[in-house]
Amino acid sequence: MKNYVNLFNSIAGYFLSGLFKIQISKLPGFIIGLLLFIPLSCDGTEENLSLTDLEKAKMSFDSLLEDPENRVISFPDEDPGIPIYARVGPILNQFFVAGNQLVIPFYRNPECIPDSFNLLNYYDPPAAFGCELMVQGRFVIEKDAEEGQFPIMAHTTGSDVPVWIVDWTGFQSLKANGAVTIVDLEALQPIKAIALQFEEYLSPRINEHQVIIEAEGIVEGTDQKFLFHLTHEGDQIQSIVLEIE
């Protein structure tokens, strides 16, 4: 590839040096564009742009794994996992809405969630630790991190992960009252899906918060399939795809 770059840069040099006595201003526009584009596209930049958000996150996670200053902790083997039931709540506006449908991935078995727990409160330690964890994974944190410090990044997978798809208008009405329970969600008659393939990369620190999810599976009680892709950075959705067919 370097040979192609050197060759092209040599040709470009002839044009720019005037050896062919051609003024650059008189070159056709597409040639000028080609002169500028080809050297840039040969250095791997174009390849990086073609990566999905999940693939980019994997590269970042793998880099952290190789850093000798970090340690890796697996869950639930070495750690009970995050003390929440589902990724939905007002912290950094984590409401993943596609169209008028709110997508709620559950880390823990929904059947175990206390009827009175307000999901908008998000965290529920230590009670949440008693609920079956539906995912597994590992996270990376500095070896000298203080106790209670969020990890740098976590990678989560699962093959039987509940994902509920809820009417957003109905959810907003409940949210306006300050509380949403699992009983309330059931009353909204959600579409209950199971992610047979679930993968998430999470950067949980507040100033670098990012959630990237790819999930696909089936809708319970039907022959429908669903697909869900999400990139959420800070308090904003950058991209979201929800398909049910």
Task: Tell me about this structure.
By secondary structure, the protein is α+β, with helices and mostly antiparallel strands. The protein has 2 domains: 2-49, no CATH class; 53-244, no CATH class. It is 26% helix and 31% strand. Strands 1, 2, 3, 4, 5, 6, 7, 8, 9 and 10 form a 10-stranded antiparallel β-sheet that branches. The longest helix is centred in the N-terminal third of the chain and has 16 residues, at 2-17. The radius of gyration is 24 Å and the shape is globular. Residues 1-27 and 30-43 have low confidence and may be disordered.
Q: What about the largest sheet? A: 10 strands, antiparallel
Number of strands: 10
Number of domains: 2
Unreliable segments of 5+ consecutive residues? 1-27, 30-43
Order of helices and strands: HHHHEEEEEEHHEEEE
Structural classification: alpha+beta
Q: Tell me, rounded to a whole number, the average pLDDT.
A: 86
Number of helices: 6
**Percent in strands:** 25-35%
Termini separation comes to 43 Å
Query: Which outline best applies?
Result: globular
Secondary structure: helix percent: 25-40%
What is the CA-based Rg, rounded? 24 Å
